[in-house]
């Protein structure tokens, strides 16, 4: 049963990747897609091998995240804590470290029920600042985008309607809001932006 479930998830992920590739290809873009579990070394190796064959990397967007349980930070189970930091922090560090050779070629408010998740994201602020200082001499900028509540699986346990009333714009983030910020930071217009955290609340 466990094998079938794991296989089913892999098939679903592969379908999502292929659909994304198809959509972008129809827009005239040269796109490659593959499944990458960022906490697995073999998956990251395969990802960067594809990037290497494609000529290297101009931009690394590290946006994978998990939150397996809803609990205050000190109520978080050890297994969930380990998974959250393995994916949200350690994998982000390893992705940046392993991407560096290819790159060479070419204000945070935590939520109570997302305690450990919020801690992991705060850790990424420190990683962003430290990496930005180290890579600045190589003309590589490092920035972070920190959205507020968004409509996705991680926040499915949060009362979206109640949170909307607390937001200045009376709505939650959309994928377009977040991707727009990423696109800006990846553009020449943000060439002087470094060690920045763009927060959306």
UniProtKB/TrEMBL annotation:
Family annotation (Gene3D superfamilies): NAD(P)-binding Rossmann-like Domain
Entry-linked InterPro entries: NAD(P)-bd_dom_sf, SDR_fam
A Pfam short name: adh_short_C2
Top-level taxonomic group: Eukaryota
Similarity comment: Belongs to the short-chain dehydrogenases/reductases (SDR) family.
Designated name of the protein: Dehydrogenase/reductase SDR family member 4
Organism: Molorchus minor
Lineage of source species: Eukaryota, Metazoa, Ecdysozoa, Arthropoda, Hexapoda
